[in-house]
Amino acid sequence: MSRVLIVGAGLTGSLCACLLRRELQNKVQIEVWDKARGSGGRMSTTRPPDSSSHSADLGAQYITSTSSYAQSHQRFYSELLSAGVLQPLDSLVEGLKHRDGDENYMTPQGMSSVVKHFLSQSGADLFLERHVTGLYRRGASWEVQRKVGGSEMFDAVVLTMPAPQILQLQGDVGQMLSVSQKQQLEDVEFSSRFAVALFFPPDVVFSFPWSARYVSDSSIIRYIAADSRKRNADVLGRGPSLVVHTSVPFGLKHLEEDKEAVQPIILQELHKLLPGLPEPISIKCQKWRYSQVLTSVPDSPGHMTLLQRPPLLCAGDSFVHSNFSGCVESALSALSALKASL
Ligand SMILES: Cc1cc2nc3c(=O)[nH]c(=O)nc-3n(C[C@H](O)[C@H](O)[C@H](O)COP(=O)(O)OP(=O)(O)OC[C@H]3O[C@@H](n4cnc5c(N)ncnc54)[C@H](O)[C@@H]3O)c2cc1C
Predict the structure, then answer these.
(1) Cα dist. 162→5, 80, 81, 285 in Å?
(2) Considering only CA atoms, which residue is closest to atom 44 of ligand 1?
């Protein structure tokens, strides 16, 4: 039995774990490590500290399947729809550009439910607050070092964090990269933005008609979602929540500032855009340093093999594009490489 470590409990990592289990069944023991306190990565769903009835998606908002991906990824959409994880997004999203054949889906339980679905299907052992700091080649195994100290040995490792975070790893990763691979990873560019979630008392009803809106007349705010309404969570008695995403230029300008210092600027602008907004009971701000891929690895290969034996692979949206289908493509391509190497 091979011991496989997947670093990152985001969509790519959870899909890699699930597909690997389905292909190799009990021939692999799979562990998923993530430095965060919860799974989801950029598909995270947050809750205020004192309410279990509120939740909001701070990162990805909805899933779009284009007509070609609707065919090639049909099994993933069918699985998520029949499990109730996805539902058609049928509420009003102002400013959403619609192309022929596009289908939009929302997640009644929040975006992290997509990741949790694949993680539970994988039967992998999930370890949170496990920050990988370095990888060292030890014969036919990889020694994986943790931030809190200590290390563990694995037969194969798949790294699914954004390319700039792969380049920060210590140990032998740098040596495994060819000059061109290193350059390709260095050339990956991400946008940056802030996200703010506001949670309101249960009796609050928003006065505007939309469930989400792309904002075109603000240099600070790019997108606002009545998150609970978008997910039909209002009718299920869940507390109302609002999510705000800043523009990328604003995100870049304030990137090195504390989110506590940036939050009031965003809220002031929000009140200008939505005057009369009720007082929230809780607010959460998130800085997405690595938000969405602007420039991916050339030709979108899906993954990069750093070493064939013992296998060390990189995957994630850096190798395709930043959305659901990009992560599916990446996981499929990492899986075929891993299967060949194991
Ligand atoms: C604001 C925003 C809006 C978006 N909107 C949409 C949308 O509407 N629709 C859509 O389809 N996509 C959207 N996206 C893009 C989508 O969220 C991403 O493409 C996708 O979630 C990437 O998944 P991933 O697994 O590749 O990476 P990630 O989700 O980033 O997962 C990587 C994981 O690795 C962990 N990690 C990093 N370093 C280490 C380490 N050293 N040790 C251990 N763990 C580590 C991280 O904590 C993280 O959980 C959006 C993203 C953002 C930020």
Answers:
(1) 17, 25, 28, 21
(2) 34
For residue 58, give the ligand 1 atom closest to its CA: 1
User: Which of these, 32, 36, 37, lies nearest to 14 by C-alpha position?
Assistant: 32
CA of 149 to the centre of ligand 1 (A): 25
Measured CA distances, 208 to 21, 58, 205, 224, 229 (Å) = 45, 21, 9, 12, 11
d(CA 105, CA 60): 12
**Which atom of ligand 1 is least distant from the CA of 168?**
41
Query: What is the tens place of the pLDDT at every residue in 199-244?
Result: 999 999 999 999 999 999 999 999 999 999 999 877 677 789 999 9
Max Cα distance, the chain (Å): 64
Task: Return the closest-CA partner of residue 106 out of 83, 121, 77, 85.
Answer: 85
Query: What pLDDT, in 10s, does the model give residues 274-316?
Result: 999 999 999 999 999 999 999 999 999 999 999 999 999 999 9
